[in-house]
Amino acid sequence: MSVTVRVPAKVNVQLAVGAARPDGFHDLANVFLAVGLHDEVTATPADALRVTCEGPDAGEVPLDTTNLAARAALALAGRRGIEPNVHLHIAKDIPVAGGMAGGSADGAGALLACDTLWQTGASRAELLSICAELGSDVPFALVGGAALGTGRGEKLRVLEVGGTFHWVFAMAGRGLSTPAVFREFDRLAEGLEIHGPVASEEIAEALAKGDPEALAAAVSNDLQPAALSLFPGLADTLAAGRAAGALAGLVSGSGPTTAFLARDAESAERVARALTASGTCRTVRTAPAPAPGATVLGAPVTGG
Ligand code: C5P
After folding, report:
1. Which residue, of 22, 78, 80, 250, has the greatest Cβ tally within 10 A?
2. pLDDT tens digit sequence for 255-271
3. Within-domain flag for 295
């Protein structure tokens, strides 16, 4: 018997960053939007905990207990006093170290897959609390849709979304480490007065109306200067996407994936073609938003 869970990537349509806290994290006002790029995590009973991965970036995915999928299985098994004997297979389509929370998605996916496989009957609240222990972006991967994340991003308030938003994502030739980008944020902020992060009302309204122009006018990412400082070539990708008619272009989360909001599906295809032709990025994908959170595919199948 095995259980497969599908989990979405995210883009941050707002990422307001406060000053570094004593625990090293930063307070955020972080508007997550789940997008239709997915990983699938399959949990199958095994003799011991094992992680495997397939997909174009599989070689860059750690297969030890630093993988959030493994840590999710360990966390749930530890709480239930059971052995974490499970094979977690990740079919990876979300870029690795790309600022789209792919590792976090795998954590949420593995947690839901193990909960289903082991029939642990964890409540939604318990699953969310395990997710928050695993990482700041993990609870959102479970919830999907759109949400405002505060604290270090783990405290979620679901936001209404009144339509489909068409996105284009340009994946870069290498990854960026999230802690390194936050450190660069701190370095660039030295000597400046950093205010507490404030959630944008314009963004919540634009999402609720399903209005891409209004959303494009309001998107912001305080980590973008830090990502550009560590990866200056991203400026060329941003310029290429904007020149091709994207309503907005921004770095996704801590980057280096760049995200472009298009007026409609046709325009997204045009922007994607222009970005591919620009030679400023590795691959280009289009994806609609919002996407649902972690979802168990079908019923548990026997014989897998
Ligand atoms: O929570 P997560 O493990 O995903 O965070 C990865 C790293 O990103 C943290 O160790 C920290 O350096 C940085 N971070 C931060 N403030 C946040 C979230 C993440 O400084 N709110």
Report:
1. 250
2. 999 999 999 999 999 99
3. no
